[in-house]
């Protein structure tokens, strides 16, 4: 399945098939690790969001496609994953941060790869609350953030194309222990098709570790493992279990 097509509208593809495969494989490795932490030999897996299947293509080579469920707000992306990988799929509809059409308490493993990285603190809090309810008791989530490692990178270069003022705001918020969120520059090229589809609610967040800890406490879940910059030497990775 690793030779599956890369969709022409896939914003996660930046020109290197090797890098695209490496990032997808790393997330599939995290999902396998989460399944082991959950003691689930034949897990029901949720991948939310799935985009155009950068990760999904690696999940289907290690789990049963009928036990993989993917979801995204972009209907063409969801349709592509169904066609290409024969997984179960949900198009996310209003209220778009509550995922009401995805079953609750059903999944042994749930991956939230690079979603709250793009949302305001308010929307990210709503996402975490509803996403974590998708886990069965004993299930384990993989959640990625722009955190410690992103702060380090953003301190040296405007890696998210947000412009000087927004970059300064993100860094100052983060350093003050606050969740930061800004929009992309109007002429940005990163993830432009996704922003065109979703609108200005989709930007760039910088998220202190403490924010994740607080949200986990509010939702009665536990951080089992933390890997600074663990995804592509960039996004921080949290393994979170529901009792
Ligand atoms: C940075 S991409 C990550 C995609 C995938 N996880 C990956 O790593 O390849 C973010 C994705 O979030 C999706 N998205 C944004 N808002 C969403 C929402 N409210 N519900 C579901 N998906 C959403 C976008 O359509 C996009 O596909």
TrEMBL record:
UniProt entry tagged with the keyword Methyltransferase: yes
Keyword annotations of the record: Methyltransferase, Transferase
Alphabetical list of SUPFAM superfamilies matching this protein: S-adenosyl-L-methionine-dependent methyltransferases (SSF53335)
GO aspect biological process, one term: methylation
Gene3D superfamilies, A to Z: Vaccinia Virus protein VP39
Domain of life: Bacteria
GO molecular function: methyltransferase activity
Pfam families named among the record's database cross-references: Methyltransf_23
Protein name according to UniProt: Methyltransferase type 12
Species this protein is from: Paraburkholderia graminis (strain ATCC 700544 / DSM 17151 / LMG 18924 / NCIMB 13744 / C4D1M)
